Amino acid sequence: MSELLFELDDPGSASDYLPPLDVPEAPMPFAPRPTLDLPELDEHSVVRHFTRLSHQTFSIDTHFYPLGSCTMKYNPKLNEAIASLSGFAGAHPLQDEQTAQGWLEVLFRAQNVLAQIAGLDACTVQPLAGAQGEFAGLLMIRAYHDKRGEGQSRRRIIVPDSAHGTNPASAARCGYAVTSVQSNAQGNVDMDAMRTALGSDVAAVMITNPNTLGVFEAQIEELCAAAHQTGALVYMDGANMNAILGQARPGDMGVDVMHFNVHKTFSTPHGGGGPGAGPVAVRAILEPFLPVPHVKQTESGAFMWDWERPDAIGSLHGFRGNAGVILRALTYILRHGGAGLQRVSSDAVLSANYILARLKGAYETANPNGCKHECVLSAAKLKAEHGVSAWDIAKRLPDYGFHAPTVYFPTIVKESMMIEPTETETKATLDAFCDAMLQIAQEAITDPDMLRHAPHTLKVGRLDEAGAAKCLNLCWTTPQEAEECETPGPAKRELAGASTY
Ligand SMILES: Cc1ncc(COP(=O)(O)O)c(C=O)c1O
Predict the structure, then answer these.
(1) Is residue 128 situated within a structural domain?
(2) 375-421: per-residue pLDDT in tens?
(3) Cα of 466 to ligand 1 centre, how many Å?
(4) Whose CA is nearest to atom 7 of ligand 1?
(5) Are residues 375 and 288 in the same domain?
């Protein structure tokens, strides 16, 4: 079966839906492009081609998606219905604010409700992703220290080794030196090491809570107090908030600034890297530094963009943020209400612990005392005894109809597999997944070679992923061009010795 539209090309078969032009042709505002050599197909062939391709892939609408961290596994159709309402979908980002009051109210309400959930005083919904939220939060921390005349002396950010990888990257991107602090045997920050690392040159402690091991940092209050004593602020990566939504508020624990990943906590889509949003909530001391424009409500009740913020860190991008994503997140929040969000977090934690309890005999775990919303298993023993890696297990799962979990992250656990079932899967689905994982653990002992060559039922087997990343070529080539491409260029030669995991 041909895979590409170019291979399906059937000259003359394309349907011409529009009658011939019966008005003068409008002048082109730009130089006409040379004619493109596009394939010609009839409508059925095009629709069937894309529908067939969509069935060859895994998605949350077709399969259970236990990927740990990073993305939401539930995008309710209600969110899409609300976002499609013409008043929202038809608006333009350059529209006059008087004619966009509904949109401004959405953003204003989102700012308020997110600040409330965080237990903090103010919030910006501008950042386009979690990592950009981190960047914005750290810029606000830097502006705060600058304003107090301590910007030059506070040059370090402390990041525990159980933090998400974007945390040290964001700190370095803001010009800070990063001090890493180790976790203890329970997967929590080692408080003695933290105290040793703290000092008057520290601008902030940046902590992911619950951390990437799926463990809640129970000493967070003590940690915040210790940081504050030295004049440092505390940034919390709140991407994992769906473990504690409605149960506890970071602001009450002493956190000064945090970001949300709405695509991890509030059901917004984020597949393939965007569009996302990473709203940042702050304590009142950081409020003057929030990016512009900020949405505010005037005394008359109208909503407006507030640009008059002299201490603001600036704007994070050309427009106003991914408003459609914020709208979906607000829809999810309002649909659930306070009690509903509390249920979300308890169900997410229950699901992860259920999986952990069923699988911890077959795999080692980094969560001996239970977990929050995600659990971390390890295939280190299977690797040592049978040569079967986390990668092989991940490749075998699609044969059983499941997307793979996140593998090799967190990096502090060998052969790690991070599983995040979220609050939305039925017990029957969780059981089917666990049955598959148990079966695979058995196969690792009885037929390791078969696992090393999985998947066996998919359209393609193991791809050269390093090659695809390093030598990305998305252009269709004729068989003859493909043959010419086989002559190794510099990038291909470099890859010759590289392997996938
Ligand atoms: C804990 C944590 N922090 C930060 C991020 C970064 O968020 P984003 O991918 O939206 O930049 C993620 C996942 O993506 C995450 O899981």
Answers:
(1) yes
(2) 999 999 999 999 999 999 999 999 999 999 999 999 889 999 999 99
(3) 22
(4) 130
(5) no
Distance between Cα 330 and ligand 1 center (Å): 19
The pLDDT, as a whole number, for residue 456 is 96
Q: Decide if pLDDT at 499 tops 60.
A: no
- Out of 166, 235, 325, give the residue to mutate to test ligand 1, the one with the largest number of ligand atoms within 8 Å of its CB: 166
In this structure, which residue's CA is closest to atom 12 in ligand 1?
70
Domain around 489: 465-495
Domain boundary among 277, 302, 333: 333
Q: Is the CB of 278 under 6 A from ligand 1?
A: yes
d(CA 437, CA 358): 10
191 CA from centroid of ligand 1 (Å): 24
Q: How far is CA 319 from the centre of its chain?
A: 21
Among 134, 244, 261, say which to mutate for ligand 1: greatest number of ligand atoms within 8 Å of CB. Answer: 261
Both tokens of 61, joined, read 């609408």
Residue 215's identity, in one-letter code, is V
CA atoms within 13 A on the CB side of 419: 36
Domain end residue (candidates: 333, 359, 383): 333
Atom nearest to 131 CA in ligand 1:
11
Examine the domain organization and report whether 447 and 474 are in the same domain: no
Dihedral through CA 187, CA 192, CA 197, CA 198, nearest 10? 110
Is 61 within a domain? no
Q: pLDDT tens for residues 271-298? A: 655 688 999 999 999 999 999 999 999 9
* Residues 19 and 123 grouped into a single domain: no
Kindly give the number of the ligand 1 atom that is closest to the alpha carbon of 134: 4
Q: Which residue has the tokens 């030295």?
A: 230
What are the counts of helices (DSSP H) followed by strands (DSSP E) for the chain? 19, 13
Residue-level length of the chain: 501
Contact between 454 and 399 under an 8 Å Cβ cutoff? The reply is yes
Report the pLDDT value the prediction gives residue 55, as an integer from 0 to 100. 86
Q: How far is CA 386 from CA 377, 392, 438, 444, in A?
A: 17, 11, 15, 7
Closest by alpha carbon to 213, among 410, 419, 417? 410
Do 316 and 422 fall within a single domain? no
- The answer as to whether 223 is a domain residue is yes
Whether the model pTM is above 0.85:
yes
Number of domains in the chain: 4
- For ligand 1, the distance from its centroid to the CA atom of residue 239, given in whole angstroms, is 6
- The C-alpha angle with vertex 129 and arms to 315 and 203, in degrees rounded to 5, equals 70
CA dihedral 161, 163, 166, 169 (to 10 degrees): -40
Q: Which atom of ligand 1 is nearest to the CA of 270?
A: 10
- 8 Å CB contact between 380 and 364: yes
Q: Ligand 1 in contact with 269 (CB < 6 A)?
A: no
